[in-house]
Specification:
Layout (H helix, E strand, L loop, with lengths): L3 E6 L3 H12 L4 E4 L11 E5 L2 E4 L10 H6 L9 E2 L3 E6 L7 E4 L2 H12 L1 H24 L7 H6 L4 H12 L2 H8 L7 H12 L11 H10 L9 E2 L4 H13 L3 E3 L4 E7 L2 E7 L4 E9 L3 H9 L6 H9 L6 E8 L15 H4 L1 E4 L3 H12 L9 E4 L14 E8 L7 H20 L5 H4 E8 H8 L35 E3 L13 H13 L3
Parallel strand pairs: 1-2, 1-12, 2-9, 6-14, 12-18
Antiparallel strand pairs: 3-4, 5-8, 6-7, 10-11, 11-12, 13-16, 13-17, 14-15, 15-16
Bound molecules: flavin-adenine dinucleotide (FAD).
Length: 520
């Protein structure tokens, strides 16, 4: 008899989602986690005494209502908050900021009054266009996916086929310029969509293929496009999963790093920990990215060469910076941005002047340079949920794309300070009290997330959101059914279909495949 029915490697939210499904089905499940906490890159932790930060992920933009119900997240303590606005995007002085109100009526009013009838029409048409891709996501979400070719071939008419082809292979700007044709107008609106499109890619907004990330980000959640927050921090998603997992008999062992898969007669039979201890199980589900799973934990010599080659080809280059601050007072915006001092707006202020601006940042990043005028997302969740900070104080997190990904360690450390200074400066220029309001700061990059959570290149997607790496090609072509070329081994992390972000779906789907193979 094996020690466990199933071992799960990694207690990120996907590993835990898989664990919940298997434990509920009556399996004896052990989850092994190398750090001292659950949630992986979507954890909420105390970086500074008395304050909490969402260390990696912070917005619930791709969590689908159906998976929340299937995993009973609310029953196990998850509480969602939908702020009045999702975010405000600002740019050059004189360009009207784009405020995303979560009330549809207010949103339409803002577009009509502040941006004009063509912006309102363009936004509605863009959403209708992206929903064609949304239909595909809905049909493919909870199963091993079909190939992109099959999806396109089965489109009901030529127009749908054309839209899908553009979403799968075109650039974000191919899509956006259909609805916002004048590059000199609506720059904050198009900048905002373009920034969403390059998230999780190694692309600029004009790069062919970037439309896929645009479509993914606007359709993965299924029913809404609003930023949602989990009360108490994004780690509450994993806390809810953990409660359910443990209630159904699952066990988590922390500070338990898996060093390699145990193979017996060519089958996976358990794992060996860094300590040398071995644990046997019927199946192993691994929530790490494919490169780490197969090259480090399995070993190339145990894999078919074509599969090993495909794993080595996966693109993980994803350079970014995240800066966590504690604040003794809120930024006070001046001039054109004084309207943002309303708390419902200043909780998330994004500097994204235009797609062309973003494209210039991309060009600098490709040359391994720090963008001289980086885009910046400035997020103050304690304005919406006071549990993040002691009374009278706030926390703040900045995120910015395009921190150079290929630097020597010395250059990396020097340039991350330069980038942090420039990113913080985007708010300090518009809110003169901001620098003095900062008490503490921690500057993290892809390099931190890579070494802390064992992910290749610090790529939070576990394999970028590129057309060659989605649907039937995720994580590698032909292996999108959560299985591996070694019997008893499954993949269950963000590197699997349908893709990255806090979705719980790869973990949920992988566990369903295990149950199917085990005969229910
Ligand atoms: C800066 C940043 C911002 C982000 N923003 C958002 C956002 O706003 N919204 C959103 O939806 N997503 C966001 N993401 C992406 C999101 O966090 C990830 O896609 C998601 O958390 C992946 O979940 P996972 O469970 O698949 O993997 P992970 O979270 O990577 O979990 C894997 C787990 O495995 C553990 N592990 C690694 N190696 C071993 C080993 N050898 N043995 C045992 N355990 C091991 C790790 O410690 C980790 O806990 C962001 C990520 C980052 C880094």
């Amino acid at each position: 008899m094996t020690d466990y029915d199933a071992i799960i490697v990694g207690a990120g939210h996907n590993g835990l989602a898989a664990g919940v499904v298997l434990a509920k089905a009556g399996m004896r499940v052990l989850c092994l986690e190398r750090t001292g906490h659950a949630g992986g890159m979507a954890a909420t932790r105390e970086l500074f005494k008395g304050f909490k930060h969402n260390v990696g992920a912070w917005a619930l933009i791709v969590l689908h209502e159906d998976v929340r119900k299937l995993l009973e997240l609310e029953e196990y303590g998850l509480e969602l908050i939908t702020p009045q606005t999702s975010f405000c995007v600002f740019g050059a002085p004189g360009d009207p900021p784009f405020v995303v109100h979560n009330d549809l009526g207010r949103m339409m009013e803002h577009l009509m009054n502040d941006h004009g009838a063509d912006a309102l029409q363009g936004s509605m048409d863009l959403f209708a266009y992206l929903q064609v891709f949304g239909g595909v996501m809905n049909a493919q979400r909870f199963k091993p996916p079909d190939s992109m070719d099959a999806i396109i071939a089965e489109a009901p008419d030529a127009q749908t086929r054309e839209i899908l082809l553009t979403c799968l292979h075109g650039s974000a700007m191919d899509v956006l310029r259909k609805f916002f044709p004048d590059p000199n107008r609506h720059r904050c609106i198009t900048g905002s969509f373009a920034a969403g499109a390059i998230d999780g890619t190694h692309m600029g907004p004009y790069t062919p293929g970037s439309a896929l990330s645009l479509a993914y980000h606007h359709t993965a959640s299924g029913t809404h496009n609003a930023f949602q927050m989990a009360r108490g921090g994004i780690g509450s998603v994993s806390d809810a999963l953990l409660r359910s997992f443990e209630k159904h008999g699952g066990k988590v062992q922390y500070r338990a790093e898996v060093r390699r898969m145990l193979l017996r007669h060519g089958l996976v039979a358990g794992v060996e920990l860094r300590t040398g201890d071995t644990i046997s199980s019927q199946v192993v589900l691994c929530s790490l990215d494919a490169r780490t799973t197969f090259m480090d934990l399995v070993g190339e010599e145990h894999l078919p060469s074509a599969f090993a080659h495909a794993v080595k080809e996966i693109e993980y280059t994803n350079g970014y910076i995240q800066i966590h601050l504690t604040l003794k007072e809120l930024p006070e915006y001046t001039g054109d941005l004084a309207f943002a001092n309303e708390n419902n707006i200043r909780w998330l202020m994004n500097y994204i002047p235009s797609p062309e601006h973003l494209s210039r940042c991309w060009e600098q990043y490709r040359r391994n340079q720090v963008p001289d005028d980086p885009v910046a997302y400035c997020y103050i969740p304690s304005l919406v949920d006071p549990s993040y900070a002691p009374p009278g104080y706030h926390i703040c997190t900045f995120f910015s794309h395009y921190f150079p990904a290929e630097l020597s360690p010395a250059e990396h450390n020097q340039k991350k300070q330069v980038m942090a200074e420039r990113v913080i400066g985007q708010i300090a220029k518009r809110a003169p009290n901001f620098r003095d309001a900062i008490i503490d700061q921690a500057v993290l990059t892809h390099e931190y997330f890579g070494s802390k959570y064992g992910i290749t290149g610090g790529d939070f997607c576990h394999g970028l959101l590129h057309p060659g790496q989605m649907f039937q090609r995720r994580p590698v072509p032909g292996w999108s059914n959560y299985q591996a070329p070694l019997q008893n081994l499954y993949m269950c992390g963000a590197g699997c279909h349908p893709g990255p972000g806090v979705t719980c779906v790869p973990g949920y789907n992988a566990a369903q495949e295990v149950l199917k193979r085990a005969g229910g």
